[in-house]
Amino acid sequence: MENNRTLSRSLTDSRFGSWGWSMIIYAIIMYFFFAALSTDGQNLFPTAFSEIYGFDPNTLLAYATPASIVGIIGGFVFARLLIKYSTKKISIISLIITGIAFCVWGLCANIVLYVLLLMVVCFFASGFSFVAPTLMADWFPRKKGVALGWATIGAPLSSAFFVSGFSILLTKAGFKTAFVIFGIAVIIVGILSIFWVKDTPQEVGRYPDNMDPEFAKTLAYRPEQAAIDEASDITIGQVLKTSNTWLIGIGYGLLWMVTVGVVSQFIPRMMSVGYEQSQALMFLTISSIIAVPGSYFWGWLDSKIGTKMASVVYSVSYVVALLILIFSVNEAIIWIGCIFIGLGLGGILNLIPSMVISVFGRAGFKQANSIVTTIASLIRVLAFAIMAALLTVSGGNYTLPYTVFIVADILGAVVLLLIRQKKMK
C-alpha cells in the first residue's frame, strides 16, 4: 500500500534526475526544430524566397502539402528504423542531414530545387520528431505524462518565437546567411548528440522514471526484467491486427485535424470579423505563448486522471474554442478563445505518444508508434482540404467548417473512449 502511494505521488512530480532532465531538454530541442522547419516556418519561408528570387509565394505555399506528405512518409520510415537502430544513431543522422539541407535550401535560385530541398528537410526532420517521444518512452514509461508535458513545450516555443526570431536573423544577417546559421545550429546539435543522447537510463546506471534503486527493486524495474521487456517487443502484424491501433490513430487523427484546421485559419477568421492582420497575429502569438504552460498542463492532467480522460477533456476544450470562434462577437470572447486554443496547441503531441505507451508499454512503443502516428498524421493533413472545400461551399463563412470540426472533434473523443486501456504491470 505504501509503495502504491509513493508511486502515485511520483507520477506527477518533476524529479527526473540530472540525466533525465538532460534527455527532456534534448527532446524539447527536437520538438522545437521539427515544428520550426516543418510547420511554423511555412508562415515565413515562401514569402522570404519570393522576395529574394521572385517566386510566386502562393505557388511555393502550395508545395507545403505534398512536402507534408513526404514528411509523413519520412516519419514512418524513421519510426521503423528506430526499431532496428538506436535512438542516438537516428537522431545524429537525421539532424546532420536536415541541417545540411537547410543550409543549401537558402541557396536555391530555382523552384525545382526549392521543392526538392523542402521535401528533403521535411523527410529527415521527421526522423528527429520520432526521436523525442521514443526517448521519453524509454526513460519515463510510468511518468510519461509529465515528462512529455515538459518535452512538448518545444513545439509551442517554436510557434511563439521562431517566425519572429528568424525574421530578425534574415534582416540582420541576410537571406542566405540566415539559412546557413540556423542549419549549422541543427548540425551542431546533431554532433553533440553523439555524447548527449543515451538510449536508456540503464546506459548511465539509472532506473526508468528516476526511480530510487531500492524502491525500484520492489517493482518491475530490475535489470533482468528490463532485458525481458526489450525482448518481448510485438510484431507489426500484431499491431495492425489490434483494434486499439486503429482507435488511437483515428481518434487522435480527428482531434489533430481539428487542431490544425483551427490554427491554420485563425488569422483569416479574425480578419473576417474586422481585425487587422497585426491584431490577428498578436492573438495567435498569445495563444502560442499560452501553449507553453499548456503542454505541461496536459502532461500533469494525463498523470492525474489518465490519458483517455485527459484526451476527452482536450476534445471538450476544442469544442469550446470552436464555439467561441463561431460566436466571436467581441474582444473579451476572443481573449477567452485564445486561452482554449493555446491550451490545445500544447496537448496533442503529448497525448498521442502517452496513449501508445499506456496501451503497448515501453517495449511495444516503437513498433506501435510507427503505425499509430502515421495513421493520425494522414488524417491530420485532411484539415487543409476540408477547410478549403467547406469555405468554398459556404462562400467564405466559417460557421460551416467550424460546425463540421465540432462534429469531428466529438467523434474523435467517442472513438478514443472505445480504447481498451490496460494498466502497466
From TrEMBL:
Coiled-coil ranges (or none): none
Subcellular location: Cell membrane
Broad class of the protein's primary localization: membrane
Transmembrane segments: 21-39, 59-83, 90-107, 113-135, 147-171, 177-197, 246-267, 279-298, 310-327, 333-359, 371-393, 399-419
Top-rank lineage group of the source organism: Bacteria
Topology within the bilayer: Multi-pass membrane protein
Residue ranges of every copy of the Major facilitator superfamily (MFS) profile domain listed in the record: 24-424
Keyword terms, alphabetized: Membrane, Transmembrane, Transmembrane helix, Transport
GO cellular component, one term: plasma membrane
GO MF term set: transmembrane transporter activity
PANTHER family linked: EG:103B4.3 PROTEIN-RELATED, MONOCARBOXYLATE TRANSPORTER
The name this protein goes by in its record: MFS transporter
Originating species: Candidatus Eubacterium avistercoris
Organism placement in taxonomy: Bacteria, Bacillati, Bacillota, Clostridia, Eubacteriales
